Amino acid sequence: MQKQKPEVSEIIYHPEKAGKLAVQFVQDLYDHKNEGIPLGLPDVDKILVPLRAGWLVTVIGYTSNLKSTFMDWIGLRALETIPPESNKFVCKVTWEQSVEEDTLGWIASKSNLSVTKMARGLIEEPEWDILRGTATKRAATPLWIMGHSQMEFKAGRRARPRMTMRDVAKGLEYIIHDSTPDIILEPSLVILDYLQRMRSDTQDGGTRREQMMEAVNLSKDLAVSYGCPVVLGVQASRETLSRGDKIPTLQDGQETSNIEQSSDASFGCWYPIKSEKEGNMIDGWRVNKNLFFLRLLKQKLGEAPATWALHVDPERRIFANMSHNHVTLDQL
Q: How is 88-110 classified by DSSP, letter by letter?
């Protein structure tokens, strides 16, 4: 991901070479047509091109609208594509949650344990065996976390690391080349949670807007450099709350418009129970804790926009089809 000034010959493409590269590109897509990361939601996967190497995928949502939960769902789907004994891994980079909090979410998704009960220390005696058994499975799951430990940092009186995107690249290099003796690992997916929490470098620009735009550029560079999809969480502006249809648009990403240009695919998230009265109807769907709206805002190689009502279990970070039909929010 290191930036270098290109040689002129490296950025010039003769018409004949452009044609040959296009044919090679289509051949590569054909050869790898069964690869990529689907979302495991049949209604969505009918339209969504599986997330491919080099893609920057942005997930936009207002606070508490399950943006991070949906990104974790993508991470779980990526883990399912990794065969046993593979050198591939998924890496989640978090500027907010601790490794303990994130892992509790993973345990909840793989068991019937409530993440809320675990977080409150209300686990009952029979549940401890389930907790420990699922934690053992976690140890065999190639999901790396880059961030901080609540337990270790408290013991050492350390503050959370203020990671830049260049720190993230260094961390990935360590995982790939130095974490496992005699084995070079390969990332299948990188999750960045989330844009507005990233620390900027001095060379990233003089204003916050310039710094955020550069962070998006570096996220895309990460996807290209490591040959895997990168999922970037983006906080939506408060303006979404003033609309009837509160699914964020590409223009709602706080402090940057670069996500609109740089994203290969983009999703908007809305968890209506956070903004609407329970029991109210939205396009025939009753607002409750299990209703979630997902909109595919953009995909470079396929149809968009498209909107779905999904069933969500926030406690277990699980999403499922609600209906075999699209929903429209035009009447809100």
A: EEEEEEESSS-HHHHHHHHHHHT
